[in-house]
Each structure stands twice: as structure tokens, then as C-alpha cells.
């Protein structure tokens, strides 16, 4: 309080008939009292500024740790997918590794590569099924003999009659040269499904092969096409059906896959009662996009394969598991999910489910957790050091927004990187997903500093607009450029789900790491302009429309789709809040 003149106190005392009292000592301001005490002022202010972020940081770290503890929880199965005491009946085998691609007619597999694979497979199975004789696969029977393996020799049929005859001639020669190895011949694989041959032409080729070999002959296709084309049944020695619960027209959840396989097998057995029904393909992918409620994952693959094998043992029917090794080249045809049906990975040739070891969807979860904790701490540090450079103390809502951004990013960055590693294919794919994940990692940090400095979400105009409207701040330009890259990639993904959705992956983790901090920033530091920018409005409409379409197209059981569409919707709302100043005339 301000001091009072001395003569005022004297006049008041004389009027009261008493002696004048000395004036009381004025009370010093709070800052002066702090300076007078033993504790320096800057330490007191520092303790106040740390009082909010430190508890929030601890909460964020605990939440991230709990999320990864839940995600990495292993699954226990009553029967391991690979049982050392009981070999598989048969497993589909293609020898291609890494960038090797059978779609390239000039590629030829070396003998040592095939021998190495078959030696490894001989420990888990009694038989391998091949699909063709091209690209050096015709060398499989000779090497299979060395390791005591039987071969279901495949013949690849298509619309090219010359190639068909070449395939048939070579396969017949192998059946005659290795009668102790080739246990059966599979004339054609899903050629009816692809519509490349008529049932009558296929039956004629099957009979032609039967006349030349002394082993059973069959044809392999999806179970529905056997029921639609019954005339093929009369030509074969046994019926080979494919039952892939994930690829059904109405996808089946992993927990119901074994029951679905059993029901379909019995249905086909009723339709074709006089011949053996071999399940020529069944299994589950370990990585890829969801189809309705069918979720590819390591634990689901292990569960489905183990339950189907247990069912086959109990019911007494033969099963060929698809497949021995992951086949990256199939991703060009079927998306990410097509490359991850193997019991072994493609590069290291390592068994995915070693007997006796726990099965987790994230076997490297400790590294992913460490990365998430580091990103969370870095985000808090960026916000804290930015706040120390401001003349005011940040509000509590700003720190809560930082906490939400840091926690979200820390919990999801491991998932985002994991998806990038599995889903990136070729230079374009790595550039596409790499830029999205990079934007997802950078956005929480940039947003945290913006929250502390009072800045709002940058607009396109501030980065690439007219010179008069561009920002002079390098920080704002970097933030805006990061957001632009993320929006353009997200728009490409959203449009892909509308026009070509079947094989596309859902980047829900990376998108959420970008959208949540951006939405929090616009909520805490709302834009102050007077005009809605055109670019943000167009993208907002695009994301909203694509989200609505995708939800109905993918169904309510697909949580990956719902999550991604939720991110699109929140991004649309965030972009709609964008404002810019009126352009100068």
C-alpha cells in the first residue's frame, strides 16, 4: 500500500486529544517482501511454474506405460501353432525372399535357397504344396527328396493355352521322375475364381493329366466355386477346397474361424459325399488391415492356426496351412495383408511362434515404450522451455492440452512406426508413410510450443499464400508446412477408401498423433481472423464426406475404420475453425 503524509497523522491525533503517533511503516509489495526474505524470487516463481507440468508429466508417463503393458500382454494357447511332437500334414511353399518376385518371368530361384528352406521345413511338416513350376520352383521335388518331404505338385493354369501346356508337361515329367516324392498333382489354382477358364475346359485338362500320371489328381479353389461348378467334381480324385475366414465375402472373426472352417468342410462333404475333402488352404494373416471384424495380428494368426489344427486332429481330416514363409511380393496384388500369412518371416526365416515362448502382437514393445516415453518427455520439455521465455505464466488449460498431446503421441508412436515398417512397400510407399509418421512425431512438439507462445494453428495461406499474408515466423512456417504434408497425405488416404478400399491400410495411429494436438491447439488458442480460408474448407468437406462413406462401407465391426474415420471427422472440425485476416486491398 502507498505511504500516507506525516502531517495527516499529526492533525488526526490533535483532533482526538492525544499525542501524535509516529506514522506506521508502509507495507512493502509482495515482490519486495520476497526480495527481503532468504528465498530468492526466481526460485519461488520456478517452483510455481513446475507445480503444474511435473504432475501432468508423471500422469502421462504412467498412462503410456499402462497402454503398452496392455498392448504387449502375451496370449497363452492350449496348443502351440507349431508342435515339435506333431508335424503338420502339409504347408504351402513358395521360395521367394525379399524383393524376389515370381511375377518377373526372368527371375530364377537358386537350388541352395530352396534346399535351405526345405531343410528347415522338414522339422515342422511332412509335405509342401507348390503352385507352379516356373521361376525355378520345378527344382522343389528333387530337393524335397533329400529331406524326406512329400510334394503336392501344383500346375498354374490361366488364359494362355501355350503356358498351360508347358506347365502340364513339366509337372507330369516331375511326377514320373520323382514318384516317391510327388504325392499328388494339383491341376490349377483358383482359375475359376479368376474367371480365366471355363469349367468344361478345366475338367478336360484334369482328365488329360490323370491319363499321364499314377498319383491322385485334384483341382484347388475357394469352396464356393466348387459348389457352383459341380462338373469339375467328376474329373478329380479328391476335392481340394480353400477356406480362408479372413477373405470371406462376410469376414469371420478370429475367434470364430475354426468353427467356420469346420462348418464349411461339413457342408462341402454333404455336397460331395464320395470323395475326400482336403482343405487345401486355410490360415490367418499376422499383419494388415481389418475387414469388418476380422483383425490380422500375430496373436490371432497363432490362435486360428492352432485351433484349426486341433480341430483337424480331433475330426480326422487333412489340412494344408497357408503358408510356410511370408511372401512380400503378394503385397503388390493383395495389399499389406497379402504378404503376411507365413509361419516364418520372409527375411530372417525365423519362426514366428517358437514353442514355449509367449505370443505378443508387439514382441519389441520395450523399444516402442521407450520411444513413446522419450517423445512424451521431449514434448513437455519443449513446452516448458518455451514457457520460460514468455512474460506471463501459461494457463492450466494450455498445460492440459500439452499433456493430452504428449500422452497421445507417446502411446501411439510405437504403433505408428510398427505400421510404417510393415505397410511401406517400394520407394513410394516408404516416402508416403515415412512423411506421415515424421509429421506425426513432429506435430506434438510444434503444437506444445505454439500452446505456450499463444500462437494458433497455421493456415495454408500463411505458408504458400500471397507474400502479404505469409508469416515471418520460421516456427509458424515449419508448423504450417508439417500440417500441410499431413493433410495432403490424409486426403489421399481418405479418397483411397472411397475409390479403392479393399487393400488399403488404416493409418489410425499416425493420424491421431497429428489430429489430437491440432484440435487441442485450436480449442485453447482459437483463430482470430475474419475470413474462413478456402483450402481448409475444401479439405474439411472432403474429410467429412469420406469419413461418412467409409463408416458405412467398412461396417461398424471394423474398429480400425471407425478410429480412422473419427480422426478424419476431428480433422474436418479443426480445419473448419481456421480463420485468416482479410486480404489487404
What can you tell me about this protein's structure?
- This protein is α/β, with parallel strands linked by helices and 585 residues long.
- It folds into two domains: 54-67 and 363-576, no CATH class; 90-339, Glycosidases (TIM Barrel), CATH 3.20.20.80.
- The chain is built from 20 helices and eight strands.
- The chain has helices spanning 6-15, 30-36, 41-51, 53-71, 111-121, 140-146, 161-177, 199-210, 223-228, 257-271, 298-315, 331-334, 365-387, 396-423, 426-453, 460-464, 474-499, 508-524, 534-554, 559-576; strands at residues 90-92, 127-129, 150-155, 182-189, 217-222, 239-242, 277-282, 319-321.
- The chain has an eight-stranded parallel beta barrel, surrounded by five helices.
- Strand 2 (127-129), helix 6 (140-146) and strand 3 (150-155) form a beta-alpha-beta unit.
- It is elongated and about 90 Å long.
- Residues 1-48 have low confidence and may be disordered.
Strand residue content: 5-15%
What strand line-up does the widest sheet have? 1-2-3-4-5-6-7-8
Could you name the CATH topology of the largest domain? TIM Barrel
CATH superfamily of the largest domain: Glycosidases
Order of helices and strands: HHHHEHEHEHEHEHEHEHEHHHHHHHHH
Summarize the model shown.
The chain is an alpha/beta fold. Helix content is about 50%, strand content about 5%.
Amino acid at each position: 500500500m502507498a505511504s500516507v503524509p506525516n502531517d495527516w497523522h499529526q492533525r488526526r491525533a490533535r483532533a482526538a486529544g492525544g499525542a501524535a503517533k509516529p506514522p506506521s511503516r508502509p507495507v512493502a509489495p509482495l515482490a519486495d517482501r520476497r526480495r527481503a526474505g532468504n528465498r530468492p524470487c526466481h526460485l519461488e516463481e520456478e517452483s510455481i511454474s513446475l507445480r503444474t507440468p511435473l504432475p501432468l508429466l508423471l500422469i502421462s508417463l504412467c498412462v503410456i506405460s499402462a497402454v503398452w503393458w496392455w498392448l504387449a500382454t502375451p496370449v497363452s494357447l492350449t496348443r502351440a501353432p507349431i508342435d515339435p511332437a506333431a508335424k503338420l500334414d502339409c504347408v504351402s511353399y513358395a521360395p521367394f525372399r525379399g524383393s524376389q518376385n515370381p511375377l518377373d518371368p526372368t527371375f530364377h530361384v537358386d537350388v541352395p535357397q530352396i534346399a535351405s528352406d526345405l531343410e528347415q521345413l522338414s522339422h515342422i511338416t511332412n509335405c509342401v504344396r507348390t503352385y507352379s513350376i516356373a521361376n525355378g520352383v520345378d527344382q522343389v521335388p528333387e530337393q524335397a527328396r533329400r529331406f524326406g518331404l512329400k510334394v503336392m505338385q501344383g500346375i498354374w493354369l490361366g488364359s494362355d493355352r501355350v503356358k498351360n501346356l508347358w506347365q502340364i508337361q513339366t509337372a507330369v515329367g516331375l511326377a514320373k521322375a520323382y514318384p516317391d516324392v510327388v504325392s499328388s498333382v494339383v491341376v490349377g489354382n483358383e482359375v475359376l475364381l479368376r474367371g480365366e477358364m471355363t469349367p468344361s475346359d478345366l475338367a478336360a485338362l484334369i482328365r488329360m493329366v490323370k491319363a499321364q500320371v499314377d498319383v491322385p489328381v485334384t483341382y484347388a479353389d475357394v469352396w464356393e466355386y466348387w459348389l457352383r461348378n459341380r462338373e469339375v467334381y467328376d474329373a478329380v480324385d479328391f476335392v481340394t477346397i480353400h477356406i480362408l475366414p479372413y477373405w470371406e465375402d462376410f469376414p469371420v472373426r478370429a475367434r470364430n474361424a475354426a468353427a467356420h472352417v469346420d462348418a464349411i468342410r461339413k457342408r462341402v462333404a454333404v455336397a460331395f459325399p464320395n470323395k475326400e475333402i482336403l482343405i487345401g488352404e486355410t490360415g490367418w494373416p499376422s499383419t494388415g488391415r481389418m475387414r469388418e471384424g476380422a483383425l490380422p495380428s500375430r496373436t490371432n494368426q497363432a490362435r486360428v492356426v492352432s485351433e484349426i489344427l486341433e480341430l483337424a486332429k480331433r475330426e480326422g481330416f487333412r489340412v494344408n496351412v497357408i503358408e510356410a514363409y511370408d511372401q512380400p511380393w503378394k503385397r503388390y496384388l493383395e495389399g499389406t495383408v497379402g504378404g503376411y500369412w507365413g509361419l516364418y518371416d520372409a527375411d530372417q526365416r525365423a519362426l514366428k511362434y517358437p514353442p514355449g515362448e509367449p505370443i505378443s502382437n508387439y514382441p519389441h514393445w520395450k523399444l516402442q515404450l521407450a520411444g513413446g516415453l522419450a517423445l512424451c518427455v521431449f514434448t513437455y520439455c519443449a513446452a516448458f522451455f518455451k514457457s520460460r521465455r514468455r512474460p506471463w505464466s501459461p494457463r492450466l488449460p494450455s498445460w492440459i492440452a500439452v499433456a493430452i498431446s504428449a500422452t497421445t503421441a507417446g502411446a501411439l508412436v510405437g504403433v505408428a512406426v510398427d505400421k510404417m515398417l510393415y505397410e511401406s512397400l517400394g520407394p513410394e510407399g516408404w516416402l508416403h508413410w515415412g512423411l506421415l509418421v515424421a509429421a506425426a512425431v513432429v506435430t506434438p512438439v510444434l503444437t506444445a510450443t505454439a500452446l505456450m507462445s499463444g500462437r494458433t494453428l497455421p493456415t495454408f495461406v500463411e505458408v504458400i499464400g500471397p507474400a502479404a499474408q505469409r508469416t515471418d515466423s520460421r516456427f509458424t512456417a515449419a508448423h504450417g508446412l508439417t500440417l500441410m504434408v499431413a493433410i495432403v497425405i490424409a486426403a489421399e488416404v481418405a479418397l483411397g477408401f472411397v475409390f479403392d478400399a479393399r487393400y488399403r491400410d488404416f493409418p489410425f495411429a499416425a493420424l491421431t498423433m497429428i489430429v489430437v494436438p491440432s484440435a487441442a491447439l485450436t480449442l485453447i488458442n482459437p483463430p482470430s481472423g475474419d475470413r474462413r480460408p478456402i483450402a481448409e474448407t475444401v479439405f474439411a468437406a472432403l474429410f467429412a464426406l469420406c469419413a461418412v462413406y467409409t463408416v458405412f462401407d467398412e461396417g461398424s465391426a471394423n474398429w480400425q475404420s471407425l478410429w480412422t474415420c473419427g480422426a478424419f471427422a476431428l480433422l474436418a472440425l479443426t480445419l473448419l475453425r481456421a480463420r485468416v485476416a482479410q486480404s489487404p486491398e
